[in-house]
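Re: the request from the purification team.
They wanted to know what the chain is likely to look like in 3D before they choose a buffer screen. I agreed to run a prediction and write the result into the notebook, where they can find it.
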Amino acid sequence: MKITDKRRAFLILLALFTGGAVPIQLITLSFGYSQYYQEIAMGPKMIMGAHEFAKLYIPLVYVPALLILVGLILYSRRNYPDLFRRIVIGMGAGMLATVALDYFREMGVINGWLPGDTPAMFGKAATGSRSFAVYYPVGYMVHFLNGANFGLLFTFMWGRQASYQRSVAWAVLWLLVVELGMMTGPPMTPIVGPFGTNFAWPQFFLLTLTAHIAFGIVLGLLSHLWLQPEDQGGLLKFLKGPGS
Protein backbone atom coordinates (compact mmCIF):
# COMPACT_ATOMS: atom_id res chain seq x y z
CA MET A 1 0.00 0.00 0.00
CA LYS A 2 1.59 3.25 -1.18
CA ILE A 3 0.71 6.28 0.97
CA THR A 4 1.09 9.61 -0.82
CA ASP A 5 0.96 11.80 2.31
CA LYS A 6 2.38 10.20 5.44
CA ARG A 7 1.42 13.12 7.67
CA ARG A 8 -2.19 12.83 6.53
CA ALA A 9 -2.16 9.05 7.13
CA PHE A 10 -0.77 9.59 10.64
CA LEU A 11 -3.49 12.14 11.41
CA ILE A 12 -6.17 9.72 10.15
CA LEU A 13 -4.93 6.97 12.46
CA LEU A 14 -4.59 9.44 15.33
CA ALA A 15 -8.19 10.60 14.82
CA LEU A 16 -9.35 6.99 14.65
CA PHE A 17 -7.61 6.27 17.95
CA THR A 18 -8.54 9.43 19.87
CA GLY A 19 -12.05 9.73 18.45
CA GLY A 20 -12.97 6.07 18.40
CA ALA A 21 -10.96 3.58 20.41
CA VAL A 22 -10.13 5.70 23.47
CA PRO A 23 -13.63 7.11 24.22
CA ILE A 24 -15.47 3.85 23.58
CA GLN A 25 -13.09 1.92 25.82
CA LEU A 26 -14.07 4.11 28.78
CA ILE A 27 -17.17 1.96 29.17
CA THR A 28 -15.73 -1.50 28.60
CA LEU A 29 -12.55 -0.92 30.59
CA SER A 30 -14.16 0.78 33.60
CA PHE A 31 -16.92 -1.79 33.98
CA GLY A 32 -14.61 -4.63 33.05
CA TYR A 33 -12.28 -3.54 35.85
CA SER A 34 -15.13 -3.79 38.32
CA GLN A 35 -16.69 -6.97 37.00
CA TYR A 36 -13.65 -9.09 36.20
CA TYR A 37 -10.80 -7.71 38.32
CA GLN A 38 -12.85 -6.85 41.42
CA GLU A 39 -15.35 -9.67 40.76
CA ILE A 40 -18.40 -7.45 41.31
CA ALA A 41 -21.19 -8.15 38.82
CA MET A 42 -24.15 -6.09 40.04
CA GLY A 43 -25.31 -3.24 42.24
CA PRO A 44 -23.87 0.02 43.58
CA LYS A 45 -20.50 -1.61 44.37
CA MET A 46 -20.05 -2.37 40.68
CA ILE A 47 -20.68 1.28 39.77
CA MET A 48 -18.20 2.46 42.38
CA GLY A 49 -15.68 -0.09 41.17
CA ALA A 50 -16.11 1.24 37.65
CA HIS A 51 -15.66 4.75 39.02
CA GLU A 52 -12.31 3.80 40.58
CA PHE A 53 -11.02 3.09 37.08
CA ALA A 54 -12.90 5.90 35.32
CA LYS A 55 -11.70 8.62 37.71
CA LEU A 56 -8.17 8.02 36.40
CA TYR A 57 -9.03 7.11 32.82
CA ILE A 58 -11.15 10.22 32.22
CA PRO A 59 -8.60 12.95 33.15
CA LEU A 60 -5.50 11.05 31.98
CA VAL A 61 -6.77 9.43 28.77
CA TYR A 62 -10.37 10.28 27.82
CA VAL A 63 -10.26 14.09 28.07
CA PRO A 64 -6.77 14.43 26.49
CA ALA A 65 -7.92 12.21 23.60
CA LEU A 66 -10.98 14.39 22.99
CA LEU A 67 -8.84 17.55 23.13
CA ILE A 68 -6.49 16.06 20.55
CA LEU A 69 -9.50 15.21 18.40
CA VAL A 70 -10.74 18.82 18.61
CA GLY A 71 -7.28 19.97 17.53
CA LEU A 72 -7.40 17.55 14.60
CA ILE A 73 -10.80 18.91 13.57
CA LEU A 74 -9.53 22.48 13.60
CA TYR A 75 -6.30 21.61 11.75
CA SER A 76 -7.89 19.35 9.14
CA ARG A 77 -10.63 21.80 8.24
CA ARG A 78 -8.14 23.85 6.25
CA ASN A 79 -5.42 21.33 5.50
CA TYR A 80 -7.25 18.02 4.97
CA PRO A 81 -10.94 18.63 4.13
CA ASP A 82 -11.62 14.92 3.54
CA LEU A 83 -10.38 14.08 7.05
CA PHE A 84 -12.46 16.93 8.46
CA ARG A 85 -15.58 15.64 6.72
CA ARG A 86 -15.20 12.09 7.96
CA ILE A 87 -14.67 13.21 11.56
CA VAL A 88 -17.46 15.79 11.74
CA ILE A 89 -20.00 13.89 9.63
CA GLY A 90 -19.29 10.60 11.39
CA MET A 91 -19.73 12.14 14.82
CA GLY A 92 -22.77 14.19 13.81
CA ALA A 93 -24.49 11.22 12.19
CA GLY A 94 -23.63 9.06 15.21
CA MET A 95 -25.18 11.54 17.62
CA LEU A 96 -28.40 11.77 15.61
CA ALA A 97 -28.50 7.98 15.26
CA THR A 98 -28.33 7.82 19.06
CA VAL A 99 -31.69 9.62 19.15
CA ALA A 100 -33.18 6.75 17.12
CA LEU A 101 -31.55 4.22 19.43
CA ASP A 102 -32.93 6.04 22.49
CA TYR A 103 -36.50 5.73 21.20
CA PHE A 104 -36.26 1.97 21.71
CA ARG A 105 -33.99 2.18 24.76
CA GLU A 106 -36.59 4.21 26.63
CA MET A 107 -39.17 1.49 25.91
CA GLY A 108 -36.87 -0.94 27.64
CA VAL A 109 -36.46 1.34 30.65
CA ILE A 110 -40.21 1.93 30.96
CA ASN A 111 -41.11 -1.76 30.65
CA GLY A 112 -38.28 -3.06 32.83
CA TRP A 113 -36.58 -4.93 29.97
CA LEU A 114 -33.26 -3.24 30.75
CA PRO A 115 -31.41 -3.62 34.08
CA GLY A 116 -31.03 0.16 34.35
CA ASP A 117 -31.00 3.49 32.56
CA THR A 118 -27.81 3.66 30.46
CA PRO A 119 -27.03 7.38 31.00
CA ALA A 120 -27.49 6.95 34.75
CA MET A 121 -25.09 4.00 34.80
CA PHE A 122 -22.50 5.85 32.69
CA GLY A 123 -22.88 9.04 34.73
CA LYS A 124 -22.49 7.35 38.10
CA ALA A 125 -19.40 5.50 36.88
CA ALA A 126 -17.89 8.69 35.49
CA THR A 127 -18.64 11.01 38.42
CA GLY A 128 -19.04 8.73 41.43
CA SER A 129 -21.87 11.04 42.47
CA ARG A 130 -25.30 10.03 43.76
CA SER A 131 -26.82 13.38 42.84
CA PHE A 132 -29.14 13.11 39.83
CA ALA A 133 -28.29 16.69 38.82
CA VAL A 134 -24.62 15.71 38.58
CA TYR A 135 -24.50 12.18 37.21
CA TYR A 136 -27.38 12.26 34.72
CA PRO A 137 -26.20 15.15 32.48
CA VAL A 138 -22.68 13.68 32.49
CA GLY A 139 -24.07 10.24 31.69
CA TYR A 140 -26.07 11.60 28.77
CA MET A 141 -22.98 13.40 27.47
CA VAL A 142 -20.96 10.17 27.61
CA HIS A 143 -23.87 8.28 26.01
CA PHE A 144 -24.12 10.66 23.04
CA LEU A 145 -20.34 10.90 22.70
CA ASN A 146 -20.29 7.11 22.48
CA GLY A 147 -22.79 7.30 19.63
CA ALA A 148 -20.63 9.94 17.95
CA ASN A 149 -17.53 7.77 18.37
CA PHE A 150 -19.23 4.78 16.75
CA GLY A 151 -20.26 7.08 13.89
CA LEU A 152 -16.69 8.26 13.44
CA LEU A 153 -15.46 4.68 13.32
CA PHE A 154 -18.02 3.92 10.62
CA THR A 155 -17.12 6.80 8.30
CA PHE A 156 -13.41 6.03 8.71
CA MET A 157 -13.71 2.28 8.17
CA TRP A 158 -16.33 2.25 5.39
CA GLY A 159 -16.69 5.78 4.05
CA ARG A 160 -19.39 6.56 1.52
CA GLN A 161 -20.71 3.55 -0.35
CA ALA A 162 -22.00 3.41 -3.93
CA SER A 163 -25.65 3.69 -2.89
CA TYR A 164 -27.86 4.45 0.09
CA GLN A 165 -28.71 0.77 0.32
CA ARG A 166 -25.06 -0.26 0.58
CA SER A 167 -24.29 2.46 3.13
CA VAL A 168 -27.21 1.35 5.29
CA ALA A 169 -26.29 -2.33 4.91
CA TRP A 170 -22.69 -1.73 6.03
CA ALA A 171 -23.81 0.50 8.91
CA VAL A 172 -26.31 -2.09 10.14
CA LEU A 173 -23.63 -4.78 9.87
CA TRP A 174 -21.30 -2.58 11.95
CA LEU A 175 -23.96 -2.13 14.62
CA LEU A 176 -24.66 -5.87 14.66
CA VAL A 177 -20.99 -6.32 15.54
CA VAL A 178 -21.50 -3.77 18.35
CA GLU A 179 -24.60 -5.68 19.47
CA LEU A 180 -22.66 -8.93 19.57
CA GLY A 181 -19.96 -7.30 21.69
CA MET A 182 -22.56 -5.88 24.05
CA MET A 183 -24.28 -9.25 24.38
CA THR A 184 -21.05 -11.11 25.17
CA GLY A 185 -18.88 -8.64 27.10
CA PRO A 186 -18.93 -6.03 29.87
CA PRO A 187 -20.88 -4.40 31.25
CA MET A 188 -24.02 -6.31 30.20
CA THR A 189 -23.05 -9.99 30.20
CA PRO A 190 -21.94 -10.23 33.86
CA ILE A 191 -25.16 -8.46 34.85
CA VAL A 192 -27.80 -10.15 32.69
CA GLY A 193 -26.00 -13.16 31.19
CA PRO A 194 -25.16 -13.72 27.52
CA PHE A 195 -27.87 -12.13 25.35
CA GLY A 196 -29.87 -11.34 28.50
CA THR A 197 -30.72 -14.96 29.24
CA ASN A 198 -30.54 -14.38 33.02
CA PHE A 199 -32.68 -11.26 33.02
CA ALA A 200 -35.53 -10.54 30.57
CA TRP A 201 -35.30 -13.07 27.79
CA PRO A 202 -35.98 -12.54 24.92
CA GLN A 203 -37.15 -8.93 25.42
CA PHE A 204 -33.73 -7.61 26.42
CA PHE A 205 -32.00 -9.07 23.38
CA LEU A 206 -34.75 -8.14 20.90
CA LEU A 207 -34.93 -4.60 22.27
CA THR A 208 -31.18 -3.93 22.05
CA LEU A 209 -31.03 -5.60 18.62
CA THR A 210 -33.83 -3.38 17.30
CA ALA A 211 -32.24 -0.28 18.82
CA HIS A 212 -28.89 -1.00 17.20
CA ILE A 213 -30.48 -1.72 13.83
CA ALA A 214 -32.30 1.63 14.06
CA PHE A 215 -28.99 3.30 14.91
CA GLY A 216 -27.36 1.64 11.90
CA ILE A 217 -30.10 2.69 9.49
CA VAL A 218 -29.93 6.36 10.52
CA LEU A 219 -26.12 6.31 10.55
CA GLY A 220 -25.96 4.79 7.06
CA LEU A 221 -28.50 7.21 5.59
CA LEU A 222 -26.97 10.36 7.07
CA SER A 223 -23.35 9.46 6.34
CA HIS A 224 -24.24 8.68 2.71
CA LEU A 225 -26.20 11.94 2.42
CA TRP A 226 -23.50 14.15 3.91
CA LEU A 227 -20.26 12.58 2.68
CA GLN A 228 -19.03 13.55 -0.77
CA PRO A 229 -18.55 11.19 -3.76
CA GLU A 230 -14.78 11.54 -3.26
CA ASP A 231 -15.21 10.05 0.22
CA GLN A 232 -16.17 6.71 -1.28
CA GLY A 233 -14.10 3.78 -0.04
CA GLY A 234 -12.91 2.29 3.19
CA LEU A 235 -9.96 2.92 5.48
CA LEU A 236 -7.21 1.58 3.21
CA LYS A 237 -8.27 3.83 0.33
CA PHE A 238 -8.68 6.71 2.76
CA LEU A 239 -5.11 6.21 4.02
CA LYS A 240 -3.65 6.08 0.50
CA GLY A 241 -5.00 9.50 -0.32
CA PRO A 242 -7.12 11.21 -2.99
CA GLY A 243 -7.02 9.63 -6.43
CA SER A 244 -5.85 6.23 -5.15
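For the purification team: Residues 6-240 form one domain.
Please add any questions underneath this entry.
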